[in-house]
Amino acid sequence: LIGLGGSRGRPEEKPVTHVQPPAEPTTSSQPEVTAPRPPAPVQPAFNTNPAPAIASTPPTPAATTNDPSVWEDKVDNILGSDIEDTNKVQQLFALFPTLPEEGQVEVAQHLSNLVGDEDYAPLGAMLKNSKLPQDVLDLLMNDALNRPNSIKLPILLEVSRDPQNPEAADAKDLLELYLDEEDPAKWPEKLQQFLK
Fold first, then answer.
1. Are 109 and 78 in contact (CB under 8 A)?
2. For residue 66, which of 15, 100, 105, 161 is within the disulfide window of CB 3.0 to 4.6 Å?
3. Average pLDDT of each block of 10 consecutive residues along the chain (196 residues)?
4. Any idea what DSSP says for residue 57?
């Protein structure tokens, strides 16, 4: 009992010294955590290490907007709606620039299926945009090749003239084949003759 009584007076001082040594390993990186919660210097050593790691990993709001479930839901809502295809096309065109590359590829595929030949101009403009991802341009090029010659050949001519466009070399090869002419300077005239 005396030992307990004597240790009762001293433990108050000793626990304070024992509380401070665990704070020493955390003083370099977690003095802020030990200051708000002095009774928990041992627990903050465990909590503070995961907390910064967790806090530093999730604060990427851009990653959540690029999350496939977010944009896929938007695309599915547009495609599943009861509106006319022309309105779906307009909404998909509006959504396209906001999407990550994977979403742009998917939307480009839907657009190539929904856009009729009479409304091809916006898709052709996309194919001429050399800044779009390669996969999108490949898909749009394949779509153009399935269009009538009156659409396909003029867009191939425009793409072939842009050395920055990754599809330019293929467009040149195809024009040589269709127009039976290797000289690009003669392609516009040959194209007019071909389309008559």
1. no
2. 100
3. 44 44 46 45 41 32 55 92 93 95 95 96 96 97 97 97 97 96 94 90
4. S
Tokens matching residue 147: 């269009």
Instruction: Give CA–CA dist 171/161, Å, rounded.
Output: 9
- Angle made by CA atoms 133, 137, 141, in degrees to the nearest 5: 175
Closest CA to 122 of 106, 107, 134, 103: 107
User: Distances in Å between the alpha carbon of 34 and those of 16, 39, 55, 138, 155?
Assistant: 13, 8, 18, 57, 67
CA dihedral 179, 182, 187, 192 (to 10 degrees): -20
pLDDT of res. 66: 64
